[in-house]
Design brief:
Order of helices and strands: HHHHHHEHHEEHEEHHHEEE
CATH superfamily of the largest domain: Histidine kinase-like ATPase, C-terminal domain
Radius of gyration: 35 Å
Number of strands: 8
Shape: elongated
Structural class: alpha+beta
Helix content: 55-70%
CATH class of the largest domain: Alpha Beta
Amino acid sequence: MKLFLREHLLLIVVQLCQFALIIILLWLDGYRSIGVSIYAIVISLVLLTLFLFYKYNSRKNFYQRLQTSMKTLDGSLETTERTPISEALDQLLRSQYHLYQEELQKAEERQDEHLLFMDRWVHQMKTPLSVIELMAQSLDEPESSSIREETDRMRGGLNTVLYMARLRTIAEDFQIKPVTLSKLIHEVNQENKLFYIRNEVYPQLQQAKEKITVETDEKWLFFLLTQLVQNAVKYSTGKTKQLVISIYERAGKAVLEVKDFGIGIPLVDQKRVFNKFYTGENGRKYRESTGMGLYLVKEVAERLEHRIELQSTIGEGTTVRIIFSKTQNLT
């Protein structure tokens, strides 16, 4: 109704001015019968009201549609009513919808091409890295270890780029199945064995007697845990040599916990460390920080329907937990 009144406000004002002008002209012409003038104005107002009432009711759906926000894009394809202006609006919305779909399809094709390029590029870069590592084995220490340390760092960066590129289509890449957490942790530790040795920080596994199995995607959980242990080692180097990885149940849910005893995260940064590209105070001290590790951890965990908890105290260390929704115990 408000939109209708706003559209016809000028018409109402013009009509009222016209009534007043007619009375003035009649008065100046010597006609002094006020009763007849009032009667004429009342009839005119009634006719104007009836016209506006008819106009509003005949286009009620049209005005309601203009004032109601669309919940989905398919709302653009709905029909309003069979009046010329309503049909014109429906046609405009349909044409905009089809145009949007075409532009969206083009954008998705460009993103798919970019994803394919990144995927191939990362795998192509891994081949020369492997060759460099083989060549480094023939060198003497400490040159050999230094080269392998740098290649491991480059491989980690390439994996981050690859997983970041795949994040948009992560739902299509899921393979949910039972995963034994202790077995996965062993594989992550084996993958990062040289990384632990170089930084002189060593993991310790704490778990219950029974094996805990969860429903998740093994590849993506491997990536999550790798990010957490590498962060823990990076911010513990030079301060402690211990890193604790724990598996336990809490309130009927499995918990995978990574606890370090490093520098800790300032309180002002704890709510923002999961934001994209946010490095915080520690990131400014450690120049290698990209601000993407914990962001990817949070995003992937949410897509897998796992929950992330973080607790940290300056100078004492940081604890990050992955809490699973589905758990199965195996003895």
